[in-house]
Amino acid sequence: MAGWKPPRTVVPPWVAPAVLPAPSTAPAWRVTSPVFVPSTIDCVTATVCQAAGPNGLAASDDGGQTWTWEAAPGGEPTPLACVTVDRCWAVGDGYVDATTDGGARWAAAPLPGFRRHIPLVIAALACPSAGECVAVGTAGSTVPKGSRQAAYVARTDDGGRSWQAVTLPAGTPLLHSASCPTALRCLAVGGRRVLVSDDGGARWRQQRAPAPVGRLTSITCRTATWCVAVGTAAPHPAVDGANHPLAAVTGDGGRRWHVVTLPSALATPTQVACTAAGVCLVSGTYATATPTLARSTDRGRRWAPVAGPGPANGAAGHLDCPSADRCLDATGTGLFATDPMTGSWIDVSSPAAIPASGYDTLAAVSCPAPGHCTVASRFMALAGGGSAAPFPLALTTTDGGATWLPSSVDNGRTQAQPGLSCPTTSTCQIVDAADLYRSIDGGASWTRQPLPSPPGSAAAVSVSCPDVETCMAVGLGSQGMGVIATADAGSRWTSSTAPPGVGALTGVACTTGRTCVAVGTTAASPTSPATAAVAVTVDQGQTWQPAHVPAGTGPLAAVFCPNSEECVAVGGDRNATHPNGIILTSSDGGTTWAAAALPADTSTLDAVSCPSAQECVAVGDATAVETVDGGRRWTPMSLPAGVQALTGVSCTGDNRCVAVGLDRQGRGMIATMSAAPPT
Q1: Is 295 exposed, middle or buried (0-12, 13-18, 19+ CB in 10 A)?
Q2: Closest listed residue to residue 191, CA positions, set 216, 208, 172
């Protein structure tokens, strides 16, 4: 599988390095997450947009409908500014990262004045050209007698390779926003002040905002003369002492401002965005439980409340309007798009139905054909009393991971990690504790079938379906191996037992409706730790024969048989002092097994998939290894930093693999890989 290349995906990478390994020298996984959580967005044209958030940076070339996530330059970059499709800046902690190739590579440049005891908080970037950019915010220092903060501005005129701090007029308040409609003209706001520069941010003059402005929080300029700023009015004790939302509009570049009141449903305006056609939207914190924005269709002279996206009792996020008929709102929990004239919002996250919090794990994946994959997960939803009510969730892709569609298979009683098997692109089975969920429409909908309890088994954890009618599920047991099988798509199930000494089964692979190999562990005792157990059936589980495995082999977690002769089993003992991965191979249908030599420091392995008898990929605790010679030699595969564990993998005959698991923040992720055919 040498020569694998990361595919183009439109779901975001959870955590990935700034530069992926060169595909010509080593296989490289592309880690993605089905959760889209942008916190800031910037659109260069009507169709080309960039977004940033805690899970990386993204690019869209269709106005935000689909996204390709790139590697984050480090930390949580925000804010973000782009001037072309390829040229962007992202602010980190005391530095600014610049890219000239759309996010494939980033170069960091420190901001002047940053020290550990003098932190910088950059509130906004305004970049009028590919070489010029202005950063505004706050510089603060902690001293023995308290905290001191001052307004901060830095600029670059060499594409971000170096930055220079700018001297500001005395009394400049803390700055919250900036906009540069031309290479020379820039405006910034904060407090009751508007700062104006006519030389690209090198020198600034200060002017007081008109009454009754008390604090300005955001500004946008679509031309050198037309700008809209938003904020709140100064409290008036004689009235009610409240901070009323307002907008200040100028048509002459800031010499004169006209102040108008914003709808009261918007409590505190934090962001304004306008289209070139004169339509403006203002977001912020809501005064009511209903998400509400303010909209103007006449260049900011009159405003009316409109429905906003995001959760109730929350706050709308970062707005940008790339065209006259499209605005985007990155709320921090998703990305939403609207026609500013109609105000109808749609969720354009990928996939839309999965919120950002609550993921437990993506546990299993099955790809029955090139481009077609289904992922089974557990989703932890908080019930009314605050208790966790987990239920399995399925994600399905038909385009090789470019987009994922979710579907719920709720039963409210999940206790185990689900197992998954998809014999065709339309038929899939998920086993989860005592239930089987069956889909015959490619994962769009699922029907529940209660499972009979396998003898001595607590829960079914793995399932293998060689065709649409036949399935075998195995589980955990303290008094024998738990096995159930069906030959009529789950209408009737049969149970069977195994040779004595088997303590638990964790994986099963069936090459036909009657021939299966099951793996797990022996029963442990105070004097004998659990070791590998393998059993083979040729009569659909009615009888089982124990297989011969090398003495002392640790517990096995999964098995895969690409044909009736070759099989690969993987595992490892996490309870060992120095846990290492285990791979066993068989060339006689699972009757006898031999241990394979693994690269040094291979972690415990949890899943394996073989697109052919010669090619296999095994994954586990931040580990992936592959073989291209039938298991004689295994080589490590590079994974991006941030992968905590991979729990499932599925590979198809077109040299593509999809793996699922957790990132280091404990959230579900998907890793995809596309390979060029071996030469």
Answers
A1: buried
A2: 216
User: Which amino acid belongs to residue 534?
Assistant: V
Q: Find out whether 318 and 37 touch, Cβ atoms under 8 Å.
A: no
Q: Which two tokens stand for residue 526?
A: 């105070």
What order of strands is seen across the sheet that includes strand 68-70? 40-43, 49-53, 56-60, 68-70
What tokens were used for 678? 């071996």
Q: Lowest mean pLDDT: which of 29-33, 38-42, 89-93, 558-562?
A: 29-33
Lookup result for tokens 């442990």:
524
- Rounded to whole angstroms, how far apart are CA atoms 351 and 36? 8
Q: How many CA atoms lie within 13 A of 634 on its CB side?
A: 28
DSSP secondary-structure letter at 383? Answer: -
Nearest to 82 by CA among 66, 93, 70: 70
The pLDDT tens digits of the residues spanning 216-274 come to: 999 999 999 999 999 999 765 444 445 689 999 999 988 899 999 999 888 789 889 99
The partner residues of 659 in beta bridges, in order of sequence, read 649, 671
- Predicted confidence at residue 462, as pLDDT, reads 84
What are the residues facing 584 on neighbouring strands?
569, 595
Q: Band of the pLDDT at 581, cuts 50, 70, 90?
A: very high
User: What does the pLDDT look like over 470-480, one tens digit per residue?
Assistant: 988 887 544 44
Answer whether residue 510 shows pLDDT above 90. Answer: yes
Report which of 323, 353, 351 is spatially closest to residue 338, judged by C-alpha positions: 323
With tokens 């980033």, the residue in question is: 106
Six-digit token string for 159 = 């594409």
* Placement of tokens 């220092």 in the chain: 141
DSSP structural state of residue 2: T
Q: Is the pLDDT of residue 575 over 80?
A: no
* Whole-angstrom distance, CA of residue 471 vs CA of residue 461: 13
Question: Which residues make Cβ contacts (< 8 Å) with residue 386, sequence separation at least 6?
Answer: none
Q: Which two tokens stand for residue 29?
A: 């996984």
Place of tokens 């308290």: 146
CA angle, 525 as apex, 521 and 531 as ends, to 5°?
A: 25
Q: What is the rounded CA–CA span in Å between residue 179 and residue 128?
A: 8
Q: How far is CA 375 from the centre of its chain?
A: 14
Task: Give percent of the chain above pLDDT 90.
Answer: 27
> pLDDT grade, residue 448 (50/70/90)?
confident
Whether the predicted pLDDT of 185 surpasses 50: yes
Q: Which residues contact 673 (CB under 8 A, 6 or more apart)?
A: 4, 6, 7, 27, 28, 29, 30, 656, 657, 658, 659
CB 642 within 8 A of CB 14: yes
The stretches of 143-202 forming alpha helices (DSSP H) are none
> What's the CA gap between 611 and 653, in Å, rounded?
5
Q: Where are the beta strands (DSSP E) in 422-566?
A: 428-432, 435-439, 447-450, 457-464, 471-477, 482-486, 494-496, 502-510, 516-522, 532-537, 545-546, 556-560
Task: For residue 678, say if its preceding peptide bond is cis, omega within 30 degrees of 0.
Answer: no
Question: Residue 630: beta bridge partners?
Answer: none
Question: Phi-psi region for residue 174, left (φ > 0), alpha (ψ -120 to 50) or beta?
Answer: beta
Residue type, position 446, single letter? W
How do residues 99-147 score in pLDDT, each as one tens digit?
776 655 677 788 887 665 567 788 888 888 888 899 998 887 544 445 5
The rounded distance, in Å, linking the Cα atoms of 125 and 175 is: 11
Q: How far apart are CA 160 and CA 95, in angstroms?
A: 10
**Structure-block tokens of residue 161:** 């390779």
CB atoms within 10 A of CB 594: 14
